[in-house]
Batch of 2 targets.
Target 1
Amino acid sequence: MPAVIDPAKCNGCELCDLYCPVDVIHMEGKVAVVRYPDECWHCGACRLECARDAVRFEFPLAMLSV
Ligand code: SF4
Ligand code: SF4
């Protein structure tokens, strides 16, 4: 599953957009959006850089139960 950004927490700092190695994230006004989710590498850079804890990853239940 790709990175998911909570627009209610995002303050528009643009760090996730800056640090994403494959340019998956883009700014839409003052909110970051995962525009190309199929291209996400799950590297975690966006979540590490986000001081607002606005980025999360959602994994399928099957992956959590192994
Ligand atoms: S790093 Fe966090 S607060 Fe900053 S633009 Fe990205 S999601 Fe929003
Ligand atoms: S996990 Fe990595 S590749 Fe995916 S959106 Fe975040 S920074 Fe980009």
Note: The chain has a mean pLDDT of 92.
Target 2
Amino acid sequence: MSIIEKAVDKLRSNAPSVSNKDQQQKDAAGDSQRLEMGKHDTCHDAQDPTPSLPVTEPAKTQQTEILLEPDALMQPAVSTQPDIEIIALNLDGILTDDARRTRQAEEMRMIKRPILQSAFGKKHKPSEHSNLLMVTSAIAGEGKTFTSLNLALSIAVEMDRTVLVVDADLAKPGLSRLLKIDDRSGLTNYLRDEERDIGRLLLRTDIPKLTVLPAGSRHVHSTELLASNRMQQLFHELAVRYPDRIVIFDSPPLLVTSEASVLANFIGQIVLVVESGKTAQHLVKDALAQLDSTDNVSLILNKCKKGFLSTQMGSYGYGHGYGYGNEESDQQ
Ligand SMILES: Nc1ncnc2c1ncn2[C@@H]1O[C@H](COP(=O)(O)OP(=O)(O)OP(=O)(O)O)[C@@H](O)[C@H]1O
Ligand SMILES: [Mg+2]
């Protein structure tokens, strides 16, 4: 090998150090190219409504994409619109404005106090489901739905309380009809396992802290549905999941169907609405006889025309009365 050939060989053996440098230069060029692409992404993203996100960080770019998914964008719109606009329904005798100092509003305040005391007072036991309240009566038309809704509205203004009203009158869903939600899925659909998540059936109202569970689709075996294990589990879940919540069950009359006495077995407090001047005393006694115990029963004397009545009803606990809010009595 000539001296020249040896020199060429030596130069070749030094070649890697030269190509490393080359590679470094290429790498640097590549990085700046990638940065350029990043900038290009920024321009692309600038067309969407969230241009300020630093797109050179892949994780955040990814986050931008997630935020822009159509479902995520639809979520807030769904949650801001109430399902039931009770105020706009302008229902006769339904007190959506708690600030009003009407006799009826005052009476409702007096009715709710002992109920709240029993539900959340020092003596209450969570295991007794004292925050579950059933509104029933001896016969039809005594004012159960009217009382349930007004009581719910009155409790909803309490500072630390939320209210759920359940239309548990599956055969004659008066509350669902009144609120125009009788075509919505509700309690029966849950009990028939057509909907597993009860939360998806609860309807929000325009009254803060008040939600409603409609009766749902009609079912011929409503007593069996209400007596089912699934209903028992639901009672328990409703009672313990939100301990600051009152759940009001607008229920059927005790002497007309067997459903009300079935429901009463799982409920902490029972309110028996008695229509003043109409329901005979023996019917009230018969209705009370349908219940296993009367320790947790309160009576409300409804539609009494001459002001508030507060009567101690023998061994059946305390009694309350409220009546029609006529023009004269409303002006205070
Ligand atoms: N205190 C009251 N003041 C004025 N109207 C009342 C009062 N209570 C009930 N009503 C009216 O009496 C009628 C019957 O009341 P409601 O529908 O609440 O009775 P109900 O016991 O739920 O009947 P049902 O057994 O058919 O379910 C309704 O028109 C209601 O607006
Ligand atoms: Mg009713």
Note: The longest helix spans residues 15-45.
